[in-house]
Design brief:
- This protein is of the alpha/beta class.
- The protein is built from 11 helices and 20 strands.
- A hairpin with a 2-residue loop joins strand 3 and strand 4.
- Helix 3 crosses helix 4.
- The radius of gyration is 22 Å and the shape is globular.
- The protein binds guanosine-5'-diphosphate, 6-O-phosphoryl inosine monophosphate (IMO) and magnesium ion.
- The site of 6-O-phosphoryl inosine monophosphate has 24 residues, from helix 4.
Length: about 425
């Protein structure tokens, strides 16, 4: 297929609140790249790829792993849960996917430890109504420890005495929080130590200095694809704070989390769903709390790939996506799940928000404003035709073309690829 990413190191980012269909698009683009690298997030991600009706859900391992003769890298910016990683490797191998020398793990990635998951759980329960609705994978507490310089990195697993001493000290500290603050049971550092020593030996073959690996790859002119996780509106700086994840989701995070210099990232490609979803708490101006929202959830299979939670659904929010395009510097995008809108008579795009007497056409940072913003919609006629079997541009119904062109105009970017079904084959190139 025609692919504008050829020859450019490309960063693929979600332009909404996650689950835009990034995994599927990464799998398709991987054909044109040598290396696929995850640079942030952890097992809070759930990237689904369907190949010949077989479904794969990747949480930590880049979605490029399904293609032969490609190398997948888990960069320094990732929060690495070794248990999750090992389970994922086992699952892939069961399905005859090779995981060996084609997987590299950064020795400076921070480890997710049992106390991170416990803290995630306890602090979410404590929050009540104000819950973020995290995936409870320990992501927030892991990044908190990293920034507080209280984390443990992959490399430390191999310095046995250092690891033991550090773990003991940290677990003793965490236990004070569990017991005194949450009235919960303490954890045993000895148990965690034994468990993680076991993981260390199993992950050892994959661990390396990925900074050197990536720099050698750049020098050798290998083609690199950066796989964003989550979505830009969950970015810790530019998302709907505090209802966000704890990492730099946007393209800037790709350089930091992979150790590749920003100048070596040549193209930023956004992925956006033809409507909007959000899982967890937080403002969502174009949310549909009605039958249509329920219809989109059912037709789009909008249930979390990581937690199974029903995703909140709504119309495409161009105000939010324009903000995401700006903070990423995305030049073009892939539009996914067009087929989910096939039966709609009318399709709406949220083009601005009304808040009191004011009309916003830019995304407000003020969290007091956003939940009270009312969407202002532009209405377009639906196409009411099955798009899931389209083979080329000629098959796109004219009202669907109109929807795509309208989005392009409002957003100021080119849609270069359409996705019209979960399978690897259900994609139409527009360039
Ligand atoms: P990611 O986190 O961005 O990789 O997205 P998820 O995998 O969490 O969610 C996307 C869901 O939509 C998955 O179940 C995919 O199999 C499915 N999917 C991806 N693209 C399409 C599409 O174009 N049409 C339909 N109907 N489903 C799609
Ligand atoms: P992918 O890569 C959708 C959401 C959670 C919660 C918030 C914080 O599959 O698109 P966290 O566990 O990260 O502390 O939760 O972020 N969230 C996601 N939502 N897709 C994801 O990843 C997400 N990863 C985290 O639901 O609202
Ligand atoms: Mg997902």
């Amino acid at each position: 297929m025609v692919n504008s990413t050829i020859g450019s190191n490309t960063c693929l980012v979600g332009l909404q609140w996650g689950d835009e269909g990034k995994g599927k698009i990464i799998d398709i683009l991987t054909e044109s790249f040598d290396i696929v690298v995850r640079y942030q997030g952890g097992s809070n991600a759930g990237h689904t790829v369907v190949v010949d009706s077989e479904k794969f859900v990747l949480h930590l391992i880049p979605s490029g792993i399904l293609r032969k003769n490609k190398c997948c890298v888990i960069g320094s910016g990732v929060a690495l849960d070794p248990l999750q990683l090992l389970e994922e490797i086992t699952e892939l191998r069961k399905k005859n996917i090779e995981v060996g020398e084609n997987l590299r793990i950064s020795e400076t990635a921070h480890l997710v430890l049992p106390y991170h998951k416990k803290l995630d759980e306890l602090s979410e329960n404590e929050k009540g109504e104000e819950k973020i609705g995290t995936t409870r994978r320990g992501i927030g507490p892991c990044y908190t420890d990293k920034m507080a310089r209280n984390g443990i990195r992959v490399t430390e697993l191999f310095h046995v005495n250092y690891f033991k001493e550090r773990l003991k000290k940290i677990v003793e500290e965490k236990n004070k929080i569990f017991v005194r603050l949450f009235n919960a049971d303490p954890l045993s550092w000895e148990k965690i130590y034994e468990e993680y020593r076991g993981y260390a030996e199993q992950i050892r073959p994959f661990v390396c200095d990925t900074v050197v690996f990536m720099h050698d790859a750049v020098k050798a002119k290998k083609r690199i694809l950066f796989e964003g996780a989550q979505g830009s509106l969950l970015d810790v700086d530019y998302g709907t704070y505090p209802f966000v994840t704890s990492s730099s989701v946007t393209a800037g995070g790709a350089a930091i989390g992979s150790g590749v210099c920003p100048k070596q990232i040549h193209k930023i490609l956004g992925v956006m769903k033809s409507y909007t979803t959000r899982v967890g708490g937080g403002p969502f101006p174009s949310e549909l709390n009605d039958e249509l929202g329920e219809y989109l959830r059912k037709k789009g299979g909008e249930y979390g790939a990581t937690t199974g939670r029903p995703r909140r659904c709504g119309w495409f929010d161009a105000v939010a996506v324009k903000h995401a395009i700006m903070v990423n510097g995305a030049e073009s995008a892939v539009l996914t799940k067009l087929d989910v809108l096939d039966e709609q008579k009318t399709i709406k795009i949220c083009v601005s928000y009304k808040f009191g007497d004011e009309v916003y056409d830019r995304f407000p940072a003020d969290l007091a404003a956003l939940p009270r913003c009312q969407p202002i919609y532009k209405e377009l006629p639906g196409w009411q035709k099955d798009t899931s079997k389209m083979e080329g541009v000629k098959d796109i119904p004219s009202n669907a073309k109109n929807y795509i062109n309208t989005l392009e105009k409002i957003l100021g970017i080119k849609v270069e690829m359409l996705s019209v079904g979960p399978d690897r084959s259900q994609v139409v190139s527009l360039i």
